[in-house]
Protein backbone atom coordinates (compact mmCIF):
# COMPACT_ATOMS: atom_id res chain seq x y z
CA UNK A 1 0.00 0.00 0.00
CA UNK A 2 1.49 3.34 -1.10
CA UNK A 3 0.87 6.07 1.46
CA UNK A 4 -0.05 9.43 -0.11
CA UNK A 5 -0.27 13.00 1.18
CA UNK A 6 -2.48 15.40 -0.80
CA UNK A 7 -1.50 19.08 -0.67
CA UNK A 8 -4.38 21.41 -1.48
CA UNK A 9 -6.76 18.70 -0.31
CA UNK A 10 -9.74 21.06 0.10
CA UNK A 11 -9.51 22.47 -3.43
CA UNK A 12 -11.47 21.30 -6.45
CA UNK A 13 -8.78 18.99 -7.80
CA UNK A 14 -7.40 18.05 -4.40
CA UNK A 15 -10.70 16.87 -2.94
CA UNK A 16 -11.54 14.89 -6.08
CA UNK A 17 -8.08 13.32 -5.95
CA UNK A 18 -8.48 12.25 -2.32
CA UNK A 19 -11.59 10.28 -3.25
CA UNK A 20 -10.00 8.73 -6.35
CA UNK A 21 -6.79 7.70 -4.58
CA UNK A 22 -8.65 6.10 -1.69
CA UNK A 23 -10.79 4.17 -4.17
CA UNK A 24 -7.74 2.88 -6.09
CA UNK A 25 -6.06 -0.44 -5.38
CA UNK A 26 -2.73 -0.14 -3.61
CA UNK A 27 -3.03 3.56 -2.69
CA UNK A 28 -4.12 5.26 0.53
CA UNK A 29 -4.39 8.93 1.49
CA UNK A 30 -2.78 9.32 4.91
CA UNK A 31 -2.60 13.14 5.06
CA UNK A 32 -4.94 15.82 3.72
CA UNK A 33 -3.03 19.09 3.87
CA UNK A 34 -4.36 22.53 3.05
CA UNK A 35 -3.58 26.18 3.64
CA UNK A 36 -2.33 26.76 7.18
CA UNK A 37 -1.33 23.14 7.79
CA UNK A 38 2.29 22.16 8.45
CA UNK A 39 4.15 20.13 5.86
CA UNK A 40 5.46 18.09 8.78
CA UNK A 41 2.17 16.18 8.45
CA UNK A 42 3.66 14.54 5.36
CA UNK A 43 6.46 12.83 7.25
CA UNK A 44 4.56 12.30 10.50
CA UNK A 45 1.87 10.41 8.55
CA UNK A 46 4.49 8.22 6.89
CA UNK A 47 3.57 9.39 3.37
CA UNK A 48 5.85 8.12 0.63
CA UNK A 49 4.32 10.25 -2.14
CA UNK A 50 2.96 13.80 -2.08
CA UNK A 51 0.46 15.08 -4.65
CA UNK A 52 0.55 18.88 -5.00
CA UNK A 53 -2.57 20.75 -6.12
CA UNK A 54 -1.82 24.10 -4.48
CA UNK A 55 -0.85 27.45 -6.03
CA UNK A 56 2.07 28.41 -8.32
CA UNK A 57 3.48 30.73 -5.64
CA UNK A 58 4.04 27.89 -3.14
CA UNK A 59 4.32 24.74 -5.26
CA UNK A 60 8.10 24.98 -5.71
CA UNK A 61 8.61 25.42 -1.96
CA UNK A 62 6.45 22.35 -1.37
CA UNK A 63 8.43 20.28 -3.87
CA UNK A 64 11.70 21.44 -2.35
CA UNK A 65 10.54 20.42 1.12
CA UNK A 66 9.46 16.98 -0.12
CA UNK A 67 12.71 16.32 -1.97
CA UNK A 68 14.75 17.36 1.06
CA UNK A 69 12.75 14.87 3.14
CA UNK A 70 12.96 12.02 0.60
CA UNK A 71 9.29 12.12 -0.41
CA UNK A 72 8.37 11.55 -4.06
CA UNK A 73 6.19 14.28 -5.56
CA UNK A 74 3.54 14.53 -8.28
CA UNK A 75 2.98 18.16 -9.26
CA UNK A 76 -0.45 18.97 -10.65
CA UNK A 77 -0.29 22.69 -9.86
CA UNK A 78 -0.55 24.74 -13.04
CA UNK A 79 2.09 27.35 -13.83
CA UNK A 80 5.06 25.12 -12.94
CA UNK A 81 7.25 26.69 -15.63
CA UNK A 82 10.70 25.96 -17.05
CA UNK A 83 12.50 27.97 -14.36
CA UNK A 84 10.80 25.97 -11.62
CA UNK A 85 11.55 22.69 -13.40
CA UNK A 86 15.21 23.70 -13.73
CA UNK A 87 15.32 24.48 -10.00
CA UNK A 88 13.97 21.01 -9.20
CA UNK A 89 16.49 19.34 -11.51
CA UNK A 90 19.27 21.18 -9.71
CA UNK A 91 17.87 20.20 -6.32
CA UNK A 92 17.61 16.55 -7.31
CA UNK A 93 21.32 16.49 -7.98
CA UNK A 94 21.61 15.93 -4.23
CA UNK A 95 18.73 13.42 -4.08
CA UNK A 96 18.83 11.33 -7.28
CA UNK A 97 16.69 8.55 -5.84
CA UNK A 98 13.67 10.83 -5.36
CA UNK A 99 11.12 11.17 -8.16
CA UNK A 100 9.32 14.37 -9.19
CA UNK A 101 6.61 13.95 -11.82
CA UNK A 102 5.32 17.26 -13.24
CA UNK A 103 2.02 16.86 -15.07
CA UNK A 104 0.55 19.73 -17.14
CA UNK A 105 -2.66 17.73 -17.68
CA UNK A 106 -3.83 14.47 -16.10
CA UNK A 107 -6.48 13.72 -18.73
CA UNK A 108 -5.59 10.76 -20.94
CA UNK A 109 -7.38 12.47 -23.83
CA UNK A 110 -5.40 15.68 -23.32
CA UNK A 111 -2.11 13.76 -23.31
CA UNK A 112 -3.09 12.11 -26.60
CA UNK A 113 -4.16 15.49 -28.03
CA UNK A 114 -0.68 16.86 -27.30
CA UNK A 115 0.97 13.84 -28.86
CA UNK A 116 -1.20 14.08 -32.00
CA UNK A 117 -0.47 17.81 -32.28
CA UNK A 118 3.25 17.16 -32.03
CA UNK A 119 2.97 14.56 -34.82
CA UNK A 120 0.94 16.84 -37.09
CA UNK A 121 2.99 20.00 -36.52
CA UNK A 122 5.57 19.64 -39.33
CA UNK A 123 2.94 18.84 -41.95
CA UNK A 124 1.09 22.18 -41.91
CA UNK A 125 2.12 25.72 -42.73
CA UNK A 126 0.09 27.31 -39.91
CA UNK A 127 -0.78 26.31 -36.35
CA UNK A 128 -2.40 28.09 -33.40
CA UNK A 129 -3.62 26.97 -29.97
CA UNK A 130 -6.83 28.06 -28.26
CA UNK A 131 -7.40 26.99 -24.65
CA UNK A 132 -10.66 27.47 -22.76
CA UNK A 133 -11.08 27.27 -18.98
CA UNK A 134 -13.42 28.45 -16.23
CA UNK A 135 -12.94 32.05 -15.04
CA UNK A 136 -11.68 30.96 -11.59
CA UNK A 137 -8.40 29.75 -13.08
CA UNK A 138 -5.62 32.12 -11.99
CA UNK A 139 -2.99 31.54 -14.69
CA UNK A 140 -2.98 32.02 -18.45
CA UNK A 141 -2.08 30.39 -20.69
CA UNK A 142 -2.74 26.99 -19.16
CA UNK A 143 0.06 24.55 -18.50
CA UNK A 144 -1.41 22.27 -21.15
CA UNK A 145 -1.32 25.04 -23.78
CA UNK A 146 2.27 25.90 -22.88
CA UNK A 147 3.32 22.27 -23.13
CA UNK A 148 1.44 21.85 -26.44
CA UNK A 149 3.15 24.91 -27.94
CA UNK A 150 6.55 23.65 -26.77
CA UNK A 151 5.99 20.25 -28.37
CA UNK A 152 4.77 21.84 -31.62
CA UNK A 153 7.71 24.24 -31.79
CA UNK A 154 10.22 21.47 -31.08
CA UNK A 155 8.72 19.18 -33.73
CA UNK A 156 8.74 21.94 -36.33
CA UNK A 157 12.33 22.89 -35.53
CA UNK A 158 13.46 19.26 -35.80
CA UNK A 159 11.74 19.00 -39.19
CA UNK A 160 13.22 22.26 -40.47
CA UNK A 161 9.79 23.86 -40.88
CA UNK A 162 9.59 27.51 -41.90
CA UNK A 163 8.37 30.19 -39.51
CA UNK A 164 4.59 30.48 -39.28
CA UNK A 165 3.19 32.98 -41.82
CA UNK A 166 1.64 36.10 -40.30
CA UNK A 167 1.41 39.48 -42.01
CA UNK A 168 0.12 41.25 -38.89
CA UNK A 169 1.97 44.53 -38.28
CA UNK A 170 -0.51 46.25 -35.93
CA UNK A 171 -1.92 44.53 -32.84
CA UNK A 172 -1.98 47.04 -29.96
CA UNK A 173 -4.39 44.98 -27.84
CA UNK A 174 -2.77 41.57 -28.30
CA UNK A 175 -5.51 40.03 -30.42
CA UNK A 176 -2.98 37.66 -31.99
CA UNK A 177 -2.38 36.05 -28.60
CA UNK A 178 0.83 35.16 -26.78
CA UNK A 179 3.71 33.67 -28.77
CA UNK A 180 5.26 30.57 -27.21
CA UNK A 181 8.10 29.18 -29.29
CA UNK A 182 6.63 31.21 -32.15
CA UNK A 183 3.23 29.50 -31.79
CA UNK A 184 0.25 31.83 -31.11
CA UNK A 185 -1.68 30.78 -27.98
CA UNK A 186 -5.07 32.25 -27.06
CA UNK A 187 -6.73 31.92 -23.63
CA UNK A 188 -10.49 32.01 -23.06
CA UNK A 189 -11.89 32.29 -19.52
CA UNK A 190 -15.64 31.73 -19.44
CA UNK A 191 -18.20 30.14 -17.15
CA UNK A 192 -19.33 26.73 -18.36
CA UNK A 193 -15.90 25.42 -19.30
CA UNK A 194 -13.82 23.04 -17.20
CA UNK A 195 -10.83 22.51 -19.48
CA UNK A 196 -10.86 22.53 -23.28
CA UNK A 197 -8.26 23.06 -25.97
CA UNK A 198 -8.18 23.26 -29.75
CA UNK A 199 -5.10 23.06 -31.95
CA UNK A 200 -5.80 24.61 -35.35
CA UNK A 201 -3.62 23.58 -38.31
CA UNK A 202 -3.80 25.13 -41.77
CA UNK A 203 -2.33 24.33 -45.15
CA UNK A 204 -3.10 25.30 -48.73
CA UNK A 205 -6.77 24.50 -49.32
CA UNK A 206 -7.33 22.66 -46.02
CA UNK A 207 -7.55 22.96 -42.26
CA UNK A 208 -7.21 20.36 -39.54
CA UNK A 209 -8.45 20.70 -35.94
CA UNK A 210 -7.61 18.61 -32.89
CA UNK A 211 -9.87 19.31 -29.91
CA UNK A 212 -10.17 17.91 -26.43
CA UNK A 213 -12.80 18.73 -23.78
CA UNK A 214 -12.89 17.77 -20.13
CA UNK A 215 -16.47 18.19 -18.94
CA UNK A 216 -15.86 17.04 -15.38
CA UNK A 217 -12.82 16.80 -13.11
CA UNK A 218 -13.47 13.08 -12.88
CA UNK A 219 -11.79 12.88 -16.30
CA UNK A 220 -8.45 13.70 -14.66
CA UNK A 221 -8.58 11.01 -12.00
CA UNK A 222 -7.27 7.99 -13.96
CA UNK A 223 -4.19 10.06 -14.77
CA UNK A 224 -3.81 11.19 -11.15
CA UNK A 225 -3.95 7.60 -9.92
CA UNK A 226 -1.48 6.45 -12.60
CA UNK A 227 0.96 9.26 -11.74
CA UNK A 228 0.83 8.68 -7.99
CA UNK A 229 1.38 4.97 -8.50
CA UNK A 230 4.31 5.45 -10.87
CA UNK A 231 6.36 8.33 -9.46
CA UNK A 232 8.37 6.28 -6.95
CA UNK A 233 9.72 4.19 -9.81
CA UNK A 234 10.88 7.23 -11.80
CA UNK A 235 13.79 8.93 -9.99
CA UNK A 236 14.68 12.43 -11.17
CA UNK A 237 12.37 14.82 -13.02
CA UNK A 238 9.73 13.58 -15.46
CA UNK A 239 7.49 16.04 -17.30
CA UNK A 240 4.14 14.80 -18.56
CA UNK A 241 2.22 11.53 -18.35
CA UNK A 242 3.58 10.23 -21.64
CA UNK A 243 6.19 7.93 -20.15
CA UNK A 244 3.80 6.70 -17.47
CA UNK A 245 1.30 5.74 -20.19
CA UNK A 246 3.97 4.08 -22.33
CA UNK A 247 3.82 6.67 -25.12
TrEMBL record:
Record flagged with keyword Amino-acid biosynthesis: yes
Residue positions of the active site: 133 (proton donor/acceptor), 137 (proton donor)
Residues of the Dihydrodipicolinate reductase C-terminal domain: 109-245
Residues involved in NAD(+) binding: 8-13, 34, 76-78, 103-106
SUPFAM superfamilies for this protein: Glyceraldehyde-3-phosphate dehydrogenase-like, C-terminal domain (SSF55347), NAD(P)-binding Rossmann-fold domains (SSF51735)
Gene3D superfamilies noted in UniProt: Dihydrodipicolinate Reductase, domain 2, NAD(P)-binding Rossmann-like Domain
Domain Dihydrodipicolinate reductase N-terminal span(s) in chain numbering: 3-106
Residues that coordinate or bind (S)-2,3,4,5-tetrahydrodipicolinate: 134, 143-144
Key word Oxidoreductase present: yes
EC number of this enzyme: 1.17.1.8
UniProt GO MF annotations: 4-hydroxy-tetrahydrodipicolinate reductase
Pfam families xrefs: DapB_C, DapB_N
Domain of life: Bacteria
The protein's annotated pathway: Amino-acid biosynthesis; L-lysine biosynthesis via DAP pathway; (S)-tetrahydrodipicolinate from L-aspartate: step 4/4
Compartments in which it is found: Cytoplasm
Subunit architecture: Homotetramer.
Function description: Catalyzes the conversion of 4-hydroxy-tetrahydrodipicolinate (HTPA) to tetrahydrodipicolinate.
Protein name according to UniProt: 4-hydroxy-tetrahydrodipicolinate reductase
Amino acid sequence: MTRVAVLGAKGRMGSESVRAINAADGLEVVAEIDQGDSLDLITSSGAEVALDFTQPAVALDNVTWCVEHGVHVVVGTSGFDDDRIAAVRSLLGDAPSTGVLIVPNFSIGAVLMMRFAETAAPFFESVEVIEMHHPDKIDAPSGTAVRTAELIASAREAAGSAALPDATTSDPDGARGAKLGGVPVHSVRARGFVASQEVLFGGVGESFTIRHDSHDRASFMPGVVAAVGAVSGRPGVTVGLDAVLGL
